[in-house]
Structure formats: structure tokens, C-alpha cells
Specification:
The structure holds three protein chains of three kinds. Chain A has helices at residues 14-25, 60-73, 92-95, 142-152, 168-178, 192-199, 204-207, 209-224, 283-287, 327-345, 352-376, 380-386, 401-410, 417-424, 437-448, 452-455, and strands at 5-10, 30-34, 78-82, 85-90, 100-105, 110-120, 124-126, 139-141, 154-155, 160-164, 185-188, 229-230, 233-239, 246-252, 259-268, 271-275, 278-280, 292-295, 300-303, 316-318, 392-394, 399-400, 467-468, 476-477. Chain A is an alpha/beta fold. In chain A, strands 1, 2, 3, 4, 5, 6, 20 and 24 form an eight-stranded mixed β-sheet that branches. The longest helix of chain B has 7 residues, at 32-38. Chain B is mainly β. Chain B has a five-stranded mixed β-sheet, covered by helices on one side. A two-stranded antiparallel ribbon of chain B has the order 4-5. Classes of the chains: A alpha/beta, B mainly beta, C alpha+beta. The interface between A and B is large, with 57 and 48 residues. Strand 23 of chain A pairs antiparallel with strand 19 (323-334) of chain C.
């Protein structure tokens, strides 16, 4: 196709930016597509111009990352489609042409991009963890609190409880302090010694000195500021009248890691950030027909790739969280490698040494990512223990755990995520199943004993993000 | 209470729009969710089951922050407050339980 | 007494298969229901759920002969109207989202109005209560219709069933009556042996099984041809992949089924408030070097999503306020004449088939007729013209 670009990159976070920079360096025509209005992804999310003050409060890595994102944004060879949400991707096989067809929607209408190769670097979102009261206004993903601070310079409350198992909670709390906001509490489900045990493994402390020092600094700052940092604890429920007003905190049994119902206390709060980890945004990869595999601690359904970021669909590449939760540095390393693979497949002369360096850079970062995944893992038993019969599983359709279990009981032949979606509506709402798919999988598994791969995931369907229908009256722009 | 974490000069509030029948001033480039949080709005919509909801992800994936948005000269549509920048003349309504078609 | 373990083995866990198992087991038959994957996994669960009793757009837009032929199914339609009315109570359920508040087939041009009138004449002759309405009456009945709609035929008993719910309810009913249901079980061999059918099956866990049934009912829908081939007969059933769309939920405002006489549109509002929009827009089968791959899911064509939304916007302007949540594909099986395929295959005694045509709207009727045919050798309705006998010439060479 004449109008198609060499490489389209979906996602302008660290992975997409590294990929686009590499592509541009080789002289390939490249289009970067992102739903946000500025590059940087979630981690380097930028506020609008009049709200950019005190960015240093988010730390040096943030300031550097934003600067880097803006430097890439100024590369004139890259075409930017910001404010574009991708809602469908058709492979060349399906368009019966030489190019992928990428459909996007903006506030103004629909448009399409044709590309010979596509790199998917769509990142991740807070792993949804249902518990009683998690639908109350004020309860949100921990990443949401960070996104609101970085992107809008607002906080969702004055007494914020951060709870979960991911070390990112420390960083968010530290960032809040930098803006004069003192978290009401930071609660980790792990016992304190767990981190120490991981770090005492040979080589770990040396290899990962920098991120570990960062976490230790944040921890010390919180203690100095008088923020309660609680280990072996979990938020059992959130209560309030139309808004969260308190959470019930349980002490976890040190032996089982499960809540002790007789050892709880209430904390007054007006917002809660839940951070047990992240879920990969792999829906475009699945929509294109590429294989994914289940990674319990690494982001749910993540893209299968060949070690050089080629997905199982020809000319479709993946980078970053889509290939397993790994953080910004991993994403950047994989973005560069995905670009090199795409360039090489397109016939560009990629230096073998550069490819080797990129591969080893990915490997090094993935080793740290694996350690972080292990450290952050709350364990399925804890997450299961947090939800009761009345807990909403599917937020969109307001379907509870009890209702799902009843359906499974009445319909013993129901054994896949898709079948439960069809009969029970879990996953039929606006979020397209992003917020219930993991719970649905676990509930079917408990009820039927079927394996994760057999239960499968909701089939990704277009539009992967809902499209206002009035746009279909307006035709398509190139 | 949700609020700004930096001081905002009145001079930067150059966008004028309507939120639930009230005229409000907003900062160019900020999202509806940012504007609403800065004004202390706690509930963005009500579910058909009658439950209040507000942003959960603040990054465009959960769709809990849906509000009704009418741009100048257009029909009202349902949009994500966290992904929709403020615009002059916009009319924004939090979505009530018995949303009118 | 033969060595059959089962009176009937029903192959295909969709609406027709589950309903047949229900009606057969109600008559006391020992029934085995076999499904390659999951119940309700294909067209039965993926279609738009219209209970459309007026003669369809696809049948009235290909000339007089086809329209007349289509009118021959009116006796089945009349049966279906009553069956859908009673099915919720019959199954002991409280709410299966079966709604028969009426339906409109709209026309936007004078030519389309003329087609409505032709169609109406045939329907009236066949005993289907339909009438043409326009002007004030149409506006007050359906204020959400665009001004471009000139007239519509109104059928007061049309509506929708819920494809999500009906098959599961039928399967539960069949199971209560003793039907053995085996999902994830593929039929790999069918052979006539000592007066009954030997069935080889393979479960997804790799285990294989051999069983005997006096009768086979092929309810495999789009895969009916492949299944029949195992029994050594040709059934010319073609897979057709169709696109469906769902919007976000809206407060109730469209109680009627909306169809179009000249454009591809079906539109209805389900219990939860979502609009289902379809009308026969094609999806595309996956292809590989050898051509179509009908064993894999097809995917909606972009042209179909755009086209279907555009018609919906033209006819019901308030659709503009909704968001498109999902577009997907259902794969239906049709015969070249688009009529039902219903009856015993003369070349293979004891091998019955029920598929083709409008197998959701008419699914309960197909099932009831075939159950009675298998059980008693007769049917209350004359279904001879839908029988596989009409394709008998294809089976002269099968062995």
C-alpha cells in the first residue's frame, strides 16, 4: 500500500518512545499512536502546561523521563497521533493487503492508519482486586492516584490509605509527601522480612542497588514524616455513605498470610489506593490474533514472543508490560529491541553488535523485573480471601461473586471465561472485561477445577475501547 | 477532600464551561476529571443498580468516570472524564441513575 | 431391542440441539447431547436474538419467486409464535428475556413501501397478523424512528429472545429430564451397525469413547455438512459469518423489534438496556493458503461495522448518543434455498437433521417437529418440503 508507514507504534510510553527513536534513527517512516495528549505513557504522564509546576516532586527519574519523552517528540521524522485511542487492528492477512489497518477514535471522529509493521507497547493498568467496598467513590488503583497527581496535580483525598503489596506504594507515598500530602497509612500485605530474604540472595543487592536504595530512601522518609507503614496487613473492606469514609484493616496471620478476622481495626480515610501489581493491556495483541500466555505474577495474559519481541503474528511486535510487567527500563529496552527486529525484518542493515547489546539489555532488565514480581506477589490465597459473596466482581454490570458462583452451580457445563460472559454478563460492560477477567478466571477455576489455559480469556473484540456511535455518521479521515 | 496539590492562579482558568448546571472556569488542557476533582466533585455517575461511582483507574481503562458531555453544536455523548480535556462552552453532566436518552 | 445405549444422540449443543434434547427427553426418550466445545458457543449464543416473524429482507429482496418460497415457512412461523410465548413457563424459569411486544419492518422509499405491500399480501394469505402503518400512528407507536421512515409493517407478536439465556435454560430442562450432556466431546466417527448408529467420540482431554444410539440428530448448524459426511451423506449446508453489534445500556425506549425491508438492519433493546444491532452484515472467515478456514472464528469486516451503524443512525437517530461496545461474529449454517433443513435423510435411515433457515426464531419449532418425527414418525405440521430429500440427488454417489 502506498499510504502505509513502515512501522506504527501503539503506545507512547517508555517502550513506544524507545522504539520510535530507534526507528527514526534508521530512517524508517514511523507513526506513534497514543490515547493521551502528550507522550510519556503513565509513568511519565505530563500535566498540561499551566499545571506543570514542581515536577521535581516526582523525582529525578520522572523529570528525566519527561525530558526524554519531549526530546523524542521533537524528532521531526516521527509522525504523532496523540489523542488517538486504537479500537481495532486488522492484520495484513485479514485486510488481504500488504498492511495492517489500525482504526482509531479521537474526540473529533474516526481515522485509520496503514502500516507494514506494528509494535504494540500499550502498557498496563492497576491489577483489579475486588473486596467489599472497592466500588465506592474514593477507592481506586494506586496508579490512579499517581496519574492524578502527575497529570492533573490533584489528589483524591486528604486522608489517603495506600494498600497492597507492590513497592510502588512507597514511591507514591513519597511523591505525596513531596507535595505536602501525608498518607494516612501505607499497608503492605507482606511481612517485613520478606523483602530482606529476597535481598539476601547472592548478587541481588549488588545488581539492583539503585532501585533498592530508592525504595529504602522512600521508606525512611515516610517514617520520618510519621506515616504509619504497616506490614502483614490488608484492607478487608471499605465503608462509607456514597464515598469511602473508613477502611477495615486486618492483621495477616504470619504463618498463612491470611486475614485474622478477630484482629482488625478501622482507619478513617477519604480515599484508598490499592496496589497489588499490574495487569498487561494485551487486548490489541489478542485482537490481532497473536498468542498470549498466563502469567500469574507478571500481568495476567501476556504476549508470547520469540526473545526478540516478535509476536506469533508476522510483522507484529511487542514491547514492555504487554510482554510481562517489567517497569519503565524494561519497556525501553524492549522497545529498542522490538524496533531493531522490525527494522531487520524490513531489510534495514541492523548491526549485529547493536542487536546483541539490545538483547542483553532486555535480559538484565527482565531479571530485575522477575525479582520485583516475586517481591510484589500478594499470593492468590490472600486475594481470594478478600472477597465475600456480596463483593462486586464485574463493576460494569454489577455482578457479585455470589451471583457468579450461583450461575456456575446451576450450569455445570460452563467452563470458559467466554461462556460465563455470555450467560452471566461478566465482562460485557464498558471496560470490556478488563476489571473482572482475572476474578472470573479464578472463580471458574475454583468451581470446575479446570486449568487456566482451558478456561481462557474473554475473546478480544472490536472496539477494544467503546466508540461513540455518532462518529460512524461522519466517515473516516486518513 | 480531593483538591489541587499546587497553587493555581486565577489567571490560568481561561476555559469556561458548565458542570451540572453551574458555570465553572477551568485550566486549558486539564481533564474533566481533574477539573471535577479540583472542585470537590465526588460522584461522577450512578449505576443502573443505583450505586455511586467515581474514577478508579484515572487512565482511561475502567470507564467508571463516564459523564455526559455536550460540545458546542453537537449532540450529547457519554465520555470518560479522565480522558476528555475541558473545552470552552462544553456542557457536562454527571450521569444520574435514570439517565435520560 | 437393539444394543443402543441411547434412543437419540443429538449432536450440537446450540439452541436446536438443546431444545431437541428437551422435547425428546420430555417424551421419555433416552437422550445423549454431544457438543464439540461448550453449550451455546456458536450462532445460538452469538446471533442477535430477533424473533422476526415477518418475511425477511434477505428473502424479499431477491425477486418474487424467492419471496413466495419464503412465504411457505409461515406455518412454522405461526407455531414459533406460540412456542416462544410459552417457553419461559414451560421451562419453569422466571425471566429469560423473551419479549413479544411487536415488531416493525420499516421502509424509507416508495419502492420499499411497495415491497412491504407485496410482502403483507403473502403474510395475510398465510395467516400472519401483519398490517401496514404510517403517519401519526407510526410516529406515536415508535417516536424514536427517523422522519426518513415512510411506513412500516407492524406485527404485534414479534420481539426478541435472549441468545445468552435460552439455550442454557433448555439444556438445564433437558438435564432435569435425564438427558446426558457431554461437552468438549467431538464426534469423530458415525457408522450404521446392527440396526443402530455406532458413535465414536473424543473428549478434549484425549479420552475416546464408543457408544450406540438408535437415532442421530444432526443439530450441528454451520458444521452440519461435516457431521453428515461422517455418516456418509451430503448435506449442502454452507457456513455464513454475520456481524452483530451491541451498544452500551440505555434506559428503555425501544420496546419493539425494528427491521428494515430494503436495508440490512435489525435493532432491538434487551432487558439490560443494551441495543443489539445487526441485519445480516457479513463477517469474514479467516483464510490461509488453502482458502477459508471455517473452524476458526471469523472477524467483523470494518465495512460491516460502519455500514450497520450508518443504517441504524439513519433509522433511529438516538443511536447517536450511544457507544458501540462490541462487534462480533456469529456463524450460521444455511442451505442454498435458505429454507429450513428438517427431517430424516432418506439415504441414511435413523439420521435426522434440523438446521438452516432462521434457526433462532424457528429453533424451538424445528426441535419440537423433529422430536415428534423421531418419536412417532409423524409431525403435526407438514415439513416434507424442508426435508433433506430435496438434496437427495447429491447422495447418489456417497458411500
Amino acid at each position: 500500500m502506498e499510504n502505509s508507514v513502515d512501522i506504527a507504534i501503539i503506545g507512547a510510553g517508555p517502550g513506544g518512545l524507545a522504539a520510535s527513536e530507534t526507528c527514526a534513527r534508521f530512517g524508517a517512516s514511523v507513526t506513534v499512536i497514543d490515547e493521551q495528549s502528550a507522550p510519556g505513557g503513565q509513568i511519565y504522564r505530563q500535566a498540561p502546561e499551566n499545571l506543570r509546576q514542581r515536577a521535581e516532586g516526582f523525582g529525578i527519574a520522572y523529570v528525566d523521563g519527561v525530558a526524554k519523552a519531549n526530546a523524542v517528540a521533537s524528532i521531526s521524522a516521527i509522525e504523532w497521533r496523540l489523542g488517538h485511542a486504537v479500537w481495532n487492528v486488522l492484520t495484513p492477512q485479514r485486510t488481504q493487503s500488504e498492511a495492517f489497518l489500525i482504526s482509531t477514535v479521537t474526540d473529533d471522529g474516526l481515522s485509520e492508519i496503514e502500516a507494514k509493521r506494528v509494535i504494540v507497547a500499550t502498557g498496563c493498568y492497576d491489577m483489579p482486586v475486588p473486596f467489599p467496598g472497592w466500588t465506592l467513590p474514593g477507592v481506586m488503583g494506586a496508579g490512579a492516584i499517581q496519574a492524578l497527581m502527575k497529570g492533573q496535580r490533584v489528589v483524591p483525598g486528604k486522608k489517603i490509605v495506600l494498600a497492597g503489596s507492590h513497592p510502588l506504594l512507597l514511591i507514591i507515598a513519597e511523591q505525596m509527601l513531596a507535595f505536602g500530602e501525608r498518607p494516612a497509612a501505607v499497608v503492605f500485605s507482606q511481612p517485613m522480612w520478606r523483602a530482606g530474604r529476597l535481598l539476601s540472595r547472592p548478587g541481588v543487592a549488588v545488581s539492583f542497588a539503585e532501585p533498592l536504595a530508592q525504595a529504602a530512601r522512600a521508606y525512611a522518609k515516610l517514617l520520618r514524616a510519621g506515616v504509619p507503614v504497616i506490614f502483614s496487613g490488608a484492607v478487608l473492606r471499605a465503608d462509607g455513605n456514597d464515598r469511602v469514609e473508613s477502611v477495615t484493616l486486618a492483621h495477616l496471620n504470619p504463618a498463612t498470610g491470611l486475614p485474622q478476622p478477630d484482629n482488625t481495626r478501622e482507619i478513617s480515610c477519604d480515599a484508598v489506593g490499592i496496589g497489588f501489581g499490574f495487569t498487561a493491556s494485551s487486548e490489541l495483541v489478542r485482537l490481532a490474533g497473536a498468542a498470549t500466555r498466563w502469567s500469574r505474577t507478571g500481568g495476567g495474559w501476556i504476549a508470547v514472543h520469540d526473545g526478540e519481541m516478535r509476536s506469533t503474528v508476522a510483522n507484529l511486535y511487542v514491547a514492555g508490560e504487554v510482554a510481562g510487567i517489567g517497569g519503565a527500563k524494561t519497556a525501553a529496552a524492549e522497545g529498542a529491541l522490538a524496533a531493531l527486529s522490525a527494522l531487520r525484518d524490513a531489510g534495514y542493515g541492523v548491526d549485529a553488535a547493536e542487536l546483541r547489546r539490545a538483547r542483553s539489555n532486555c535480559r538484565r532488565n527482565r531479571a530485575f523485573a522477575a525479582l520485583l514480581q516475586e517481591l510484589a506477589d500478594p499470593g492468590d490465597e490472600l486475594l481470594r480471601a478478600l472477597r465475600d459473596e456480596g463483593t462486586v466482581i464485574c463493576r460494569c454490570e454489577e455482578i457479585t461473586k455470589g451471583q457468579v458462583e450461583e450461575l456456575l452451580g446451576q450450569n455445570p457445563f460452563l467452563g470458559t471465561s467466554n461462556a460465563l460472559k455470555l450467560l452471566g454478563r461478566t465482562g460485557m460492560g464498558a471496560c470490556q472485561g478488563r476489571y473482572c477477567s482475572r476474578s472470573v478466571l479464578e472463580l471458574i477455576s475454583s468451581a470446575t477445577g479446570r486449568g487456566v489455559e482451558d478456561i481462557g480469556q474473554f475473546t478480544a473484540r472490536p472496539p477494544v475501547k467503546p466508540v461513540p456511535i455518532h462518529h460512524f455518521g461522519g466517515g473516516v479521515r486518513d | 477532600m480531593m483538591r489541587r496539590i499546587i497553587p493555581v492562579e486565577n489567571g490560568s482558568l481561561t476555559i469556561s464551561l458548565e458542570l451540572d448546571g453551574v458555570r465553572v472556569q477551568a485550566i486549558p488542557g486539564e481533564s474533566l476529571a481533574g477539573m471535577m476533582f479540583a472542585r470537590g466533585v465526588g460522584i461522577f455517575r450512578w449505576t443502573s443498580g443505583g450505586k455511586p461511582r467515581a474514577p478508579y483507574c484515572a487512565m482511561g481503562t475502567c470507564f467508571e468516570c463516564r459523564v455526559e458531555v455536550r460540545r458546542v453544536g453537537q449532540e450529547p455523548v457519554v465520555a470518560r472524564a479522565c480522558m476528555t480535556p475541558v473545552e470552552d462552552g462544553m456542557v457536562v453532566n454527571t450521569v444520574a441513575p435514570r439517565e435520560k436518552l | 431391542m437393539s444394543k443402543a445405549d441411547w434412543d437419540v444422540a443429538v449432536v450440537g449443543g446450540g439452541l436446536v440441539g438443546a431444545a431437541s434434547a428437551y422435547y425428546l427427553s420430555k417424551r421419555g426418550a433416552r437422550v445423549l447431547l454431544l457438543e464439540r466445545r461448550e453449550l451455546n458457543g456458536q450462532a445460538s449464543g452469538q446471533n442477535a436474538g430477533s424473533l422476526h416473524f415477518q418475511i425477511e429482507q434477505r428473502l424479499v429482496s431477491h425477486g418474487e419467486a424467492m419471496t413466495r418460497q419464503a412465504a411457505t415457512i409461515l406455518p412454522l412461523i405461526l407455531d414459533a409464535i406460540e412456542r416462544w410465548r410459552g417457553i419461559t413457563a414451560e421451562l419453569g424459569e422466571t425471566d429469560l428475556d423473551v419479549v413479544q411486544h411487536g415488531g416493525l419492518m420499516v421502509a424509507e422509499t416508495p419502492q420499499q413501501v411497495a415491497t412491504l405491500e407485496r410482502k403483507l399480501k403473502l403474510e395475510t394469505q398465510g395467516g400472519l397478523p401483519t398490517r401496514i402503518i404510517d403517519g401519526e400512528e407510526l410516529r406515536s407507536l415508535a417516536p424514536y424512528l427517523s422522519n426518513s421512515v415512510l411506513a412500516a409493517t407492524y406485527c404485534a407478536v414479534e420481539g426478541h429472545g435472549n441468545p445468552r439465556l435460552i439455550t442454557a435454560a433448555l439444556a438445564r430442562g433437558a438435564a432435569r429430564q435425564g438427558t446426558a450432556i457431554r461437552t468438549w466431546t467431538t464426534v469423530t466417527g458415525l457408522r450404521r451397525e446392527e440396526g443402530c448408529w455406532r458413535i465414536e467420540t473424543e473428549n478434549s482431554d484425549g479420552s475416546v469413547r464408543r457408544e450406540y444410539a438408535s437415532t442421530i440428530l444432526n443439530a450441528a448448524g454451520a458444521w452440519a455438512r461435516e457431521l453428515a459426511a461422517l455418516a456418509g451423506v451430503h448435506l449442502p449446508v454452507f457456513p455464513v459469518a454475520l456481524t452483530m453489534n451491541a451498544t452500551d445500556a440505555a434506559p428503555p425506549f425501544i420496546p419493539l423489534l425494528i427491521q428494515h425491508v430494503g436495508r440490512r438492519l435489525s435493532l432491538k433493546q434487551m432487558r439490560e438496556g443494551n441495543l443489539l444491532i445487526g441485519g445480516g452484515w457479513p463477517s469474514r472467515f479467516e483464510r490461509d493458503r488453502n482458502g477459508l478456514v471455517t473452524t476458526r472464528a471469523a472477524y467483523p469486516r470494518m465495512e460491516s461495522i460502519y455500514g450497520n451503524m450508518a443504517v441504524a443512525l439513519d433509522v433511529v437517530p438516538a443511536v447517536a448518543r450511544r457507544t458501540l461496545l462490541r462487534s462480533w461474529t456469529g456463524i450460521v449454517g444455511i442451505t442454498a434455498d435458505q429454507l429450513p433443513l428438517l427431517g430424516e435423510v432418506p439415504e441414511a435411515p435413523g439420521f435426522f437433521v434440523a438446521t438452516g433457515g432462521s434457526a433462532f426464531t424457528l429453533g424451538l419449532t424445528y426441535a419440537a417437529q423433529i422430536a415428534e418425527l423421531i418419536d412417532s414418525g409423524r409431525t403435526p405440521l407438514d415439513i416434507d418440503i424442508y426435508g433433506p430429500r430435496r438434496f437427495g440427488h447429491l447422495n447418489a454417489y456417497m458411500g
